[in-house]
Amino acid sequence: MRLLAVLLGGLVFGAGLAWSTMARPEVVLSFLHLADFGLLLVMGGGIAVTALAFALAPRLRGRPLFTASFDAADARLDRRTAIGAIVFGVGWGISGACPGAALASLGIGNAPILVAIAGMFVGAWLQGRLLPDGD
Fold first, then answer.
1. Can you point out the beta strands (E) in 43-121?
2. Distance CA 86, CA 81 (A)
3. Backbone phi, then psi, for 111, in 5-degree steps?
4. Helices 2-19 and 99-107, packing angle to 10 deg
5. Around 104, how many Cα atoms within 13 Å sit in the side-chain half-sphere?
6. Burial, 48: exposed, middle or buried (Cβ in 10 Å; 0-12, 13-18, 19+)?
């Protein structure tokens, strides 16, 4: 049941990225070059829905579907997080490809995005080899 929920969530997310044109790197690059602000509406809508869900879900349901309780993520800002954010941002700015949107882009027939996806996998592999957990 959990796997089905994840699959359906991914399909809805990908469909939303495709419908909003966020799966098209040229649209994302236009936004990053401050030429088209349409994606602000997409991001704002996503933030609004997420904020509403985070505020209401614990009150309406009592507990999550697939775990014992709602827990806040243990997030911290350290050197590794900052470096990762910078590398992610530079890669996104150069290619116009965010990981989720890149995979959704495959669904709309954008085969050249495979180069960016391959780069993401190589970067993740390098990060795992060069900076294993705990270092």
1. none
2. 9
3. -65, -35
4. 80
5. 22
6. exposed
pLDDT reported for residue 52: 92
Taking the model in full, what pTM does it have? Answer: 0.61
Residue ranges covered by each domain of the chain: 2-69+76-130
Tokens standing for residue 102: 């890149």
Rg of the chain over Cα atoms, rounded to whole angstroms, equals 17
**Crossing angle (nearest 10°) for helices 113-130 and 79-95:** 160
Under the banding of pLDDT at 50, 70 and 90, the label for residue 134 is: low
Using the structure block, give the residue that is written with the tokens 């709602």. Answer: 70
Report d(CA 51, CA 74) in Å as an integer.
18
pLDDT score recorded for residue 51: 92
Within 13 Å of residue 82, how many CA atoms lie on the same side as its CB? 3
Q: Is the pLDDT of residue 48 over 90?
A: yes
What value does the mean pLDDT of the chain take? Answer: 83
H/E run at residue 10: helix 2-19
CB-based burial, 10-41: b 16+ in 10 Å, e otherwise: eeeebebbbebbbbbbebbbbbeeeeeeebee
